[in-house]
Amino acid sequence: MKLLSPAISSLARLRSWRIEAWIQHPISAQREVLQDLVTAAQFTEIGRQYEFSKLFTTKAFKQAVPIHEYEDIKPYVERIMAGEQNLLWNTPINWFAKSSGTTSDKSKFIPVSQESLEDGHFKAAKDVLTLYYMQNPESDLLTGKGLMIGGSHTINNLQEDTHFGDLSAVLMQNTPFYGNWIRTPELRIALMDEWEGKIEKLAETTMHENVTSVSGVPTWTIVLFQRILELTGKKNMKEVWPSLELYFHGGVSFHPYREQFKKLIGGDIHYLEMYNASEGFFAAQDIPGSEGMMLFLDHGIFYEFMPIEEYGKDEPRTIGLKDVEIGQHYAPVITTNGGLWRYLIGDTVEFTSVAPFRIKVVGRLKLFINAFGEELIIDNAERAIAESCKITQAVITDYTAGPVYFSEEGNGGHEWLIEFEKEPNDLNLFSTILDEELKKLNSDYESKRYKNIALRPPLVKSLPRGHFNKWLKKKNKLGGQHKVPRLSNDRSIIEEVLGVGVEEV
What we know:
alpha/beta; GMP Synthetase, Chain A, domain 3; about 35% helix
């Protein structure tokens, strides 16, 4: 098969001229995308509401259409799931990507049109391969198989022809036939929703394949690698898959996992970060090892960028690509060929380059923990804490939580540092209730906690009274508007708070 590598490489790079076109002319590419979107949807319900037929400039579009969050589009989504069409987009919507919820919902459902699949996700995936082959012309990537560790697919019972699932499952279910030639495992296994059995089947069916690339959430990937090594008796994954050369990752910070991957794999491979969400495929690394990802500008998505200080205002200001600055933090606002109109996705990004446009994800507009793909938001935490206090008759003064990373000692998890005004009757019971409430409130957390495979139960530590004040005082932030951050996506605050205790002993 390696004899085919030069030919495959040449074919993969045939798209380079298309990529070069929107890299060289980003503003005009984006202007054309917006005009195509508005024209396509002008006779939909939302198109008539905001008079898309009269919108001929970006300025007019921004003046006419307000910024939307999920709560704003939820009524449309519910109607589409019930069978109505031509509401947000002009072609039928039969698929929804399920992701973690908002403050009022356990899950949210993002519409996925045929256009968003073909001209968005799949087109972007082809461009990722092109960019990779441009950097690695001698690659044997497509002579083997790509292992996709995806989610599960579920039929929506409201309508027989309406389906929803994790984004990865939706993409796999709709992959063109030729994509199945270079993918493993078979769809039946890839879409299993019982994760313990799924990991076992994945291990059994892929350990004898010629796997050249792996894509998936780091936590599940680690679990799979460990199981394959147990079954094969091999020392590392390079002994199992000698041709393994690339790992695709995204969605969560890969930094905490890099050393563990290096040890499990047992050799050097390429790592490629992608920014691919339920709402669209936004960006991917074009230069190995760089922290910036190339922003995809000709894939059915029109971008605006909201300076984060604008968030929460009645009429927040957004800017276009020509006005963004390197190093500033922005919240992307997207308009897509899936029927999202000036939609605030909730991430915050920073531009690392403007020629071409490259970004990195720096956080969320709201407090969160997403070290393992669980997307735990502050509303989930506050509700779970409140219920735990209610049942155990505890009273909380303050708290903070952050991740506990995978190690040789055990799975990852969440560490909760809590200062109680009144201690719970049973701290173990408090922890159990906290865990169960978080499962009820957040479907992604629930899936990661399934049988402790990817996420262990929360580690709750009771701190002495006044502990957080000591920490705030040390940072010269005691009093005023300064508050203890409730959730953090790394361990910096956890370690600082614990460090105060060590110093005081």
